[in-house]
Write a structure and sequence with these properties.
The chain contains 21 helices and 28 strands. The chain is an alpha/beta fold. Strands 6, 7, 8, 9, 10, 11, 16, 17 and 18 form a nine-stranded mixed beta sheet that branches.
Length: 742
């Protein structure tokens, strides 16, 4: 089978660029047995099988570091102390490493953990002393976002946002017009699920199945695979598989092989020796993506020459982590407390105030001046000598050119990925091509393979509706947040902020129904008791104030059922529901909803673990009933949830209704503005930009509002639905709903 896929060799040949051939002391103490050596104790946290897998890279790095310092005084030596990630109590270990017992050796740095979901066990303890934690393979989007502002948390591989982009780009490059996704229901798989719809939309690739499939061990997925296979209509469908447990890839692929039009593209977690070895000589064709070393810098070629195989996931990254530690310590010995990044002395406004090892490492990667150095022993010799001579050096690593994001210089921004293949009946993994998000001399840029503009944009017709509307005599609003937990702070905060925006634009409380749980202000984790904020970092005006101040909450969310909202919107007042809206044919109605959504029907009635959808048919029935009773002149829906486009589809066709959503029907929306003091996200980009636009100009056209939302809402495609039944988005303005008061 798989005869039709033999054209992959042609793709390899012509369609992509070819590659050419306690507290931490100020300084570590010299080792007792070798007074001139400066020893860094580095605790390496990873599973036992990965330790064995990375032995080659670790050996190469240690040898290169030693050779590069062969003739210098006070050479830096790394003393690696291993911990089994799968058997160790990581909370206890994190505390032990940062609070050593009297007489115990100090930990100077940590490498690992291997898995993203374990990283926070170490990172939260490391924060106290800014102990550098170097993570070769922690690619969780959420983890990297939360720790993006920390100067001690080092990420040596880009987040899974990039990997998802690379996977879909690779599928497109080998001829895919349809894709599907299978993911694991955990933090690893969630990243891929969250970004799958976004990048499929960006590349104009059709989804063969309406929603990705969450896979659990032993699950029968034949119905999903059959649906994807039928959608192929004789062509190829590439199934992206993103599972954290490497052993599950074999389970899924064993089921997938029975469908002749389906081809797997496996994510990086499967590229481990135990899985690759199990696939040798199988009568199947496998494709996969994994971060590797930079081909242009020669690491994969050198590794294969020495060990007879391609480097596995994380090999090049752990090499770079070790080298950077040794170079950083050398920079620290030479410069002491003088540590310049972008020409400015490093300073901290909160404890600890001292300059640490992590800062000297940041100073090194921030510099792109001076002699360019390579990752091998000769290149490291140049680097060590330059640092000791007080000269700037420009480092290049095994994994990349060590280009780190300029906010803190701790998150890598140009990972190289290998698209690999293992053919039927073979035992050799072959590189098909090397890819990166931006490209270099020998890695093809994924974006250059897309035959379209990078930013997808909706196209609108300018056909006016065929009936006249009377003057606006009143305005009504319903604001809903179904979230109730502290971690979902942003949803209630955005609802309160929208309430304040409405109040400042002419609405009185008799014309607003506010539905929120209102349990944030008195939450014991709230460091601002009684207050709720959507901006704390440089905001201005009403949105930089307590958005709960003066708010009249009409209903606590948990006191309502879904049908109650229908009664509120259709004016059915009762003892249980004393506050409702009663618009007429000359009233405009604004509806805002901020919460979680699911991939079947959009907005959920509750938090992310809710099992109840509010329902596409229910919202359609409500609006249809209002239409039949002449209860609105126009209605505007602003929906901030994952998969909110489902409601846009449901409400299409109803006259004089416009639906603006934070995401299309196939993708998640993303949180925005994480606040370290509160430990939560304060707002969503969609809601924040919506507010900013209205405050700046309440007469902004719907099209200009859309354009600004599309530009600033990262990770999802803001969409407008039913504009053909509403009026021209180029001339209609938001003054219909927000009559701004001076």
């Amino acid at each position: 089978m798989r005869q039709g896929f033999i054209d992959i060799s042609l793709f390899v040949t012509i369609s992509l660029l070819a590659f050419s051939c306690n507290k931490t002391p100020d300084q570590p103490l010299p080792a007792d047995n070798t007074p001139k050596e400066v020893v860094l104790n580095v605790d390496v946290i990873l599973p036992q099988e990965i330790k064995e897998q990375w032995e080659g890279s670790i050996e190469m790095a240690q040898n290169a570091i030693a050779l590069a310092q062969n003739r210098v005084d006070n050479p830096v030596r790394l003393n690696l102390r291993y911990h089994n990630e799968e058997t160790e109590n990581l909370d206890a270990l994190g505390y032990e490493l940062t609070h050593p017992k009297e007489g115990a050796d100090t930990c100077h740095a940590v490498i690992g953990p291997y898995y993203s979901y374990n990283a926070q066990h170490i990172l939260r303890y490391a924060r106290e002393d800014r102990l550098p934690v170097l993570m070769p393979t922690c690619t969780s989007v959420e983890l990297q976002r939360i720790y993006a502002k920390e100067t001690y948390a080092w990420f040596f591989t880009e987040s899974d946002i990039t990997q998802c982009e690379i996977m879909i780009g690779a599928a497109r490059a080998v001829g895919a017009t349809d894709v599907a996704m299978i993911y694991s229901n955990d933090t690893y798989g969630q990243s891929f699920k969250d970004w799958f719809g976004y990048y499929a939309t960006e590349q104009d690739i059709h989804m063969a199945v309406d929603a990705p499939l969450a896979y659990t061990k032993g699950q029968d997925i034949s119905a999903f695979l059959q649906e994807a296979n039928d959608a192929a209509q004789g062509e190829k469908v590439f199934v992206l598989i993103a599972l954290l447990d490497a052993s599950l890839y074999e389970e899924v692929c064993n089921q997938l092989v029975a469908y002749p039009h389906l081809f797997p593209i496996c994510a990086d977690a499967c590229f481990e020796s135990r899985i690759i070895d199990s696939w040798k000589n199988k009568q199947a064709f496998y494709l996969g993506i994994t971060p590797v070393g930079s081909v242009s810098l020669g690491y994969p070629q050198s590794y294969k020459e020495i060990y007879g195989r391609l480097p596995y996931r994380g090999d090049a990254q752990v090499y770079d982590a070790l080298c950077l530690l040794a170079l950083g310590q050398t920079h620290r010995m030479v410069n002491g407390d003088r540590c310049l990044i972008d020409g400015k002395q490093v300073e901290y406004k909160q404890s600890p105030y001292t300059i640490g090892l992590t800062d000297h490492m940041r100073a090194l990667v921030a510099s792109r001046e001076g002699e360019s150095t390579l990752w091998d022993a000769a290149g490291l010799t140049t680097a060590f000598n330059g640092i000791r001579a007080g000269k700037p050096v420009s480092l290049n690593g095994a994994s990349s050119n060590l280009n780190f994001a300029p906010d803190n210089y701790t998150s890598i921004v140009n990972t190289t990925y290998m698209l690999w293949a293992m053919g039927e009946g073979t035992e050799i993994v072959e590189p098909v091509c090397y890819l990166s998000a931006s490209g270099s001399n020998t890695e093809a840029s994924v974006t250059s393979m897309w035959e379209r503009d990078k930013e997808w944009e909706q196209v609108f017709s300018d056909t006016p509706v065929d009936h006249e509307l009377g003057p606006i005599e009143s305005r009504w609003a319903v604001v809903v947040s179904p979230s109730t937990t502290w971690s979902n702070y942003r949803h209630q905060a955005d609802a309160f902020a929208m309430y304040q925006l409405l109040r400042h634009s002419g609405y009185d409380d008799n014309h607003i129904v506010l539905v929120v749980e209102d349990n944030l202000s008195d939450n014991p984790r709230n460091v601002y008791p009684g207050q709720i904020f959507v901006e704390r970092d440089g905001g201005s005006g009403i949105m930089d104030e307590d958005v709960r101040k003066g708010a009249v909450v009409d209903y606590h969310f948990t006191d309502l059922k879904p049908d109650d909202l229908a009664d509120i919107m259709t004016g059915k007042r009762s003892e249980h529901l004393p506050e409702v809206i009663t618009p007429d044919a000359n009233a405009n109605v604004f509806f805002f909803w901020s919460g979680h959504g699911g991939d079947k029907e959009g907005p959920l009635w509750g938090d992310e673990d809710a099992v109840t959808y509010f329902g596409k048919q229910r919202i359609k029935d409500i609006v249809t009933s209002m239409r039949e009773q002449n209860m609105y002149r126009r209605m505007f829906f602003a929906i901030e949830t994952c998969y909110s486009g489902r409601w846009g589809e449901a409400l299409s066709g109803i006259p004089d209704v416009l639906v603006l959503t934070a995401a299309n029907p196939y993708e998640t929306s993303k949180a925005d503005m994480h606040n370290r003091e509160l430990g939560v996200y304060l707002s969503n980009a969609f809601a924040r930009t919506f507010r900013d636009c209205i405050v700046a100009d309440n007469q902004i056209t719907i099209y200009d509002l859309y354009k600004e939302l599309a530009r600033t809402t990262n990770g999802s495609h803001v969409s407008i639905y039913n504009h053909g039944q509403y009026g021209s988005v180029y001339t209609e303005t938001m003054e219909d709903y927000f009559l701004w008061r001076e």
